[in-house]
Specification:
The chain is mostly helical. Helix content is 37%, strand content 4%. This is Lytic murein transglycosylase.
Length: 246
Amino acid sequence: MALLVGLLAVAIVVGAYVVPPGGVRIGGGAVTAVTATGESVTASEFPSAVPESGRPADALEGWATRVAAVVDIPVPALEAYGYAQVFMNNVDPQCQLNWTTLAGIGQVESSHGRAGGATLLPDGRSDPAIVGPLLDGKGGRPEVKDTDAGAYDGDSRFDRAMGPLRLMPPLWRANAIDANGDGIVDPYNIFDSSLALARSLCSGNEDLRVRADWNAAIGRYHSGVSYARAIFETANDYGQRTQSIR
C-alpha cells in the first residue's frame, strides 16, 4: 500500500499502446496502425486516503469501469492491467509499458480469464482455474521437462502454462509477486500474474515505445512473429477503441 501513497504525488499516465506513425515492423512483416492515445488514468484516479486493507488495484475501479463499457474486458482484468502499468512506470519508468500490451496478451491467451467457458471472478481467479495442457511432446505440443517439481503447475514430469496469462513456471518463479495484497503469491490470479508478466516484459533495458524493443520484450514471453503480430493487433485495437472515452 505504501506504493500508492507515493503515486498520489506523481502524475503517471496509463495510456493505450502507442505505435510510431506509419506502423511498426514485427519480424519480417509490416503491421500498419494509427497511433492511438486511448483512455488514460492518472494519479488523480487514486483516493486521497489509501485504505489500510484491500487490494491497491481497487483504486482504479472508476477508470476500469469506463474502459469496460467500450471493450469486452472484465473490470478486474482491467484493474490488474492498469495497476501493473502504474506500478512498473513508477519503479521502472524507462520501460514505458502500456496496459493494452498486457490486455492484448490476456485476450489472446485466455479471453481475460474466460477461456473454455470459465468466469473471471472479482477476486481475480478464474472458475474453473485455467491451466494449459502438459507440454509432453504429444499431439503436436512441444516437450518441456518439469522445472518446478510440480509446485506451481501440479505436474512433476512436464511443465504447463498457468492462469489467465498462461505463465510458464520459470517466468513465474523469476517474477512472482503479491500484487493484490492478500498474502498469497498466485499465478492463477490475474492481479499477481499481470504484475509478474509486467516485471518480465520490463526486465531488460528496452523502451517499449520503440518497435524493436517491444518485439524483444514480447519475445521473452513467447517467441514467434505471428504471435507478436497477434498481440500487437489486439493491443492496438484496444487503444483505438478507447481513445475517444471521456
